[in-house]
Structure formats: C-alpha cells, structure tokens
Amino acid sequence: MGLLQLFVVASNPVIKVLLVTALGLFLALDRINILGEDTRRLVNHIVFYVFNPALVSSNLAKTITYESVASLWYMPVNIFITFLIGSALGWVLIKITKAPKRLQGLILGCCAAGNLGNLPIIIVPSVCKEKGSPFGDPDVCYKYGMAYASLSMATGNLLIWSYVFNLMRISSRQEANISLDSPKLKEPLAEKCSETPSSAHDTSDDAYTLLLPHTGSEPQEEVQVPLSHKIKHYLKMIPSNLNLKTIFAPPTLGAVSGFIIGVVSPVRSLLIGSDAPLRVITESAEMLGDACIPTVTLILGANLLKGLKGTDPLYQFMLLLQFTVPPAMSIGTIAQLFGAGQSECSVIMLWTYALASIAMTLWSTYYMWMLS
After folding, report:
1. Residue 216 within a domain
2. CA 144, CA 125: separation in Å to the nearest integer?
3. What is the mean pLDDT of the chain?
4. So which domain of life are we looking at (predicted)?
5. Number of other residues whose CB lies within 10 A of the CB of residue 159
6. Which DSSP string corresponds to 36-92?
7. Which of 60, 155, 280, 296 is the most exposed place for a label (fewest CB within 10 A)?
8. Within a domain: residue 199?
9. What is the pTM of this model?
10. What mean pLDDT comes out for the span 225-240?
C-alpha cells in the first residue's frame, strides 16, 4: 500500500474527530450555549457513569476470552511506560522552566497521561472502517480494535485517577499552604486553622511528593535519614493516601465486569452470543456504549473553548498510538475539582489538541506504513 493512500486512511478519522469537535465548540459558544458549562458537567456525569462503563464492558466481554488474556499482558506495561517516560520529561520541564508550585502537578500530569480514554477509542475503529486499511477485514478489525481501545481506556483511567489525581491533589494543597503562610493571611486564619487540625494534612508524608521538585525554600533536615528508610517510609504511605473510590471508578468497574464475563465460560455463555438467554443485557449495554464516542467528542470540542512481534498489527498500532496522543481530558476535570491551574490547563489542552490533529495524522501514517 502506498504512503499517500495510508496518509488518506490516517487523516480521515482525525478529520472526523475535528469536525465533531468543532461542532461541540460551536455549541458551547455564549450566543449558542447548548453545551454551556453546566450542561457539559451534567453530560460528563452521564458519560462517566453510564456510557463509558457500558462501552468498555460490552466490548471487552465480546472479545476477551481466557485464552486471549495472556496475549494482552503488554498493554498495561506499555501504558505504564508512557506514564514513566512522561513523568521524567515533565520533571525535567519543571526544572528547566522553574514552574510555580501550583502548576507542577498539572505539568507532571499532562506529561504523564496520554489520552488513553477517548481518542484511541475514536481513532482506531475509524481507521478500521476506512477503505484500504492495512488491518484486514473491517468487521474483525472493528471488533478487536474496540477491545484493545477499551482495555487501554480502563487501564489509563486506573492510573489517571490514582497517580495523576494524587499528584494534582498535592500540588493544589501546597498552593494552599503557601497562601496560609502569607503574612497578610497568617494572623486572621491562625485561630480558624487551629480549630480544624484534622483538615490539615502534612504533605511531606505523602509518597507522591517524591515527584514534585522542591524549590529550596523548605528548611533542611538536620538529621540525615538513610535513603533506604525514606523509600520504605514512602512506600508504606502509598496505600493510606490512595482514594479507592476514585481508582475504582465506573469505567474501571466496567472493565472488570467485561473481563469476568469474557473469561468465565458459564457467565459468557449466558450473556454473549446470538443464542445466549440473557443476551438482551449485553445488547442494551452496547446500545448505551454506542452513544459514548460522539458524546465525548462533542464535549472535547466544548472543553477546548477555554483554552511487539507475535501480536497482530492492529494491537501493535494501538500500542504505538498510546505514545502519540495528547494529554487526557480527565486532567481538566481534576484541575476543576481542586480549583488549581484551570486557566493554564485550558491553554495547554487547546494547543496540544490543535497540534495533535497534524501530529497524529503523520504518526498514524508512519505507524501503518511500518506495520503493513
């Protein structure tokens, strides 16, 4: 297949995303206000709690079997590598730019978290449907492409809502501590803070602060503690600082249920297949899941208003794509949750997604050329 033809195949899905995204942006304009801030928040809840879990669960249940689980082990490893490399690059960027503390968690989160939720599940199925796709039969490609993208989305959600969530939580808390130390606020708030000691958490005991560089303004410890003891202490602190409610979010629970249905043969025979007695349940989940992709693409546009050999080529394309996509839109949700760096996050998202339309087309072309 020629390089030009592959470029056309790679560009069409991106153009589709851009068109729907542009529509979402248009609907969010003040004079239109169909997708205003309140509406986006409500629709996001529907996507997060209904559409997303239904999409992940139904696609994994149809394609994952006990035999296929062993061949997918590298997917979470690949995602972990993206987070590891991204965190290292983000840390270097913070050191070079001397970013303020209130933005350090946001920068690390954006560098670490590729958009493992929305974009792959939009791009991969679209590529499969294109005429001249290098991944074979469109129906088979779509079936397995959705499974790979769903697994990627579930694994990414797990890391975003555990690792990135806590990084940004600590960064926003450090900003609050700096504000409280201000001479103008220190005296009026001293009495109020002393009355609520349980609300003040010592971030120095939080394991995630290891990744947030210190500015040098903190007093140096007089007692030198061995590095091995520090690491042991921080490792012990990780479980106590993890929020299980955010880690086991609906998309993650949807993935778990999809795995159980696909792997456990008796349950699979009840729910999956044209002769399954309870197939109406999975068909209903599929119907809800079909609404996920256009909805999240519309919301994406509205949110931008502010600112391995031995596996099949499609699986390899999915692994490569994870290194190409821009930061996860979930980071914007986390920034709003903590009220820290919202404007800066909008600017970062605007430019990264604008440039991604070109970069993803070129990288996708190269990936398909390499794998075909």
Report:
1. no
2. 9
3. 74
4. Eukaryota
5. 20
6. -HHHHHHHHHHIIIIIHHHHHHHHHHHH--HHHHGGGTHHHHHHHHHHHHHHHHHHH
7. 280
8. no
9. 0.63
10. 62
Mean pLDDT of all residues in 121-144: 81
Amino acid residing at 79? I
Residue 111's domain spans which residues?
Answer: 3-178+229-371
Establish if 203 belongs to a structural domain: no
pLDDT in tens, 85-123: 888 998 998 899 888 887 888 888 888 876 666 677 778
For the residues 113-138, what does the mean pLDDT come to?
77
The span from the CA of 247 to the CA of 161, in Å, is: 5
pLDDT of residue 206: 46
3-state secondary structure of 344: helix
Q: Which residues of 309-334 are buried (b: 16+ CB within 10 A; e: fewer)?
A: eeebbbbbbbbbbbebbbbbbbbbbb
CA distances from 92 to 59, 86, 209, 299, 370 (A): 38, 10, 15, 32, 31
Q: Higher confidence at residue 203 or residue 310? A: 310
Compute the half-sphere exposure of residue 175: CA atoms within 13 Å on the CB side of its CA. 18
pLDDT of residue 230: 62
User: Cα separation of 291 and 328, whole Å?
Assistant: 20
User: Rounded to the nearest 10 degrees, what angle do helices 52-63 and 279-289 cross at?
Assistant: 130
The residues that bridge with 327 in the sheet, in sequence order, are 114
Name the amino acid, one letter, at 283: E
Q: Domain containing 356 — which CATH number? A: 1.20.1530
DSSP bridge partners of 114: 327
Counting the structural domains of the chain, the total is 1
Instruction: List, as one string, the DSSP characters of 216-228.
Output: S-SPPPSSPPPHH
Q: How far apart are CA 103 and CA 341, in angstroms?
A: 6
pLDDT band at 46 (very low <50, low <70, confident <90, very high): confident
The answer as to whether 119 is a domain residue is: yes
- Rounded Cα–Cα distance for residues 259 and 255 (Å): 6
